[in-house]
Write a structure and sequence with these properties.
single chain, about 250 residues, alpha/beta, binds S-adenosylmethionine
Length: about 250
């Protein structure tokens, strides 16, 4: 009961701060805290914001890059404009959306990729976890070739099956890969951010992140056989989202 109270109190406090600061979502503070800790984004940087709706991270990214930088965001849901950012609507895994992102970048490489992507949740936790991990792997495979040498990448992950394998698949691409839980993340959530710094493209393995991730997960679960109608197994994967009275979205 007490934990629940503390958690609600914290959430309300971040929401109030978001509203007072003009951010669209409490999640803006997660990126601000990642930035404070890791100094990922610099003035003049080109940033890709993956899963940008409703625009909290895009607002923060625009502040960080300043006049000389560029922020391109993408989300399945249309996002109200954020001054200084180009926000596209589409699926990041769709080649047409990817083409539009490349057009907006006009051949310029990215300094940083920030991804807060969360797939639609069905409530079948193991399946949700697997979809979420695969989506993150796909984001890496699309965005890594656009990232400058030395660039940074942060992405949300959900603690659960496959996380260690995904991190192992990403590790060769950066000289530093760290897990970080911003204070603004909910206590109850299993979300954690992976903060990858100093992109090392010359060390990139031949196989994609997704291929290496899937190979490792298949080994973990004992081969590629698919069980028919498996019993649902509880995992720690949890995402809760709700609209609030104050107009801010819960992210
Ligand atoms: C937690 S929200 C992002 C909140 C955002 N960072 C902010 O501060 O406003 C996660 C977003 O990921 C988006 N998303 C999920 N799957 C996607 C996909 N395949 N392509 C693009 N966006 C996706 C969802 O539509 C959702 O808006």
């Amino acid at each position: 009961m007490a934990d629940h109270w503390v958690e609600n109190h914290k959430r309300d406090s971040w929401r109030k701060q978001a509203k007072a600061s003009g951010y669209r979502a409490r999640s803006a503070f997660k990126l601000k805290q990642i930035q404070q800790r890791f100094n990922l984004v610099r003035e003049g940087d080109f940033v890709l914001d993956v899963g940008c709706h409703p625009g909290g991270w895009a607002q923060v990214a625009v502040e960080l890059v300043g006049q000389d930088g560029k922020v391109v965001g993408v989300d399945l849901q249309p996002c109200a404009p954020v001054e200084g950012a180009i926000l596209l609507t589409g699926d990041i895994t769709d080649p047409l959306t990817q083409e539009r992102i490349l057009e907006e970048l006009g051949g310029d490489p990215l300094n940083v990729i920030v991804s807060d992507i969360s797939p639609h949740i069905t409530g079948k936790w193991d399946m949700d976890q697997s979809v979420a991990m695969t989506l993150v792997a796909d984001v890496f495979d699309f965005a890594l070739p656009l990232l400058k040498k030395g660039g940074g990448f942060t992405t949300k992950l959900f603690q659960g099956i496959g996380v260690e394998e995904l991190i192992a698949a990403v590790r060769p691409h950066f000289s530093s890969v760290r897990r970080y839980s911003p204070d603004a993340s909910r206590n109850s959530s299993s979300e954690v951010y992976l903060v990858c710094r100093h992109h090392t493209p010359w060390k990139a393995p031949k196989l994609s992140v997704r291929e290496r991730y899937e190979t490792a997960v298949n080994k973990l679960v004992g081969g590629e056989e698919i069980e028919e109608d498996p019993e649902p197994v509880a995992s720690s994967f949890r995402v809760r989202r709700k609209k609030t009275d104050d107009g801010l979205e819960e992210h």
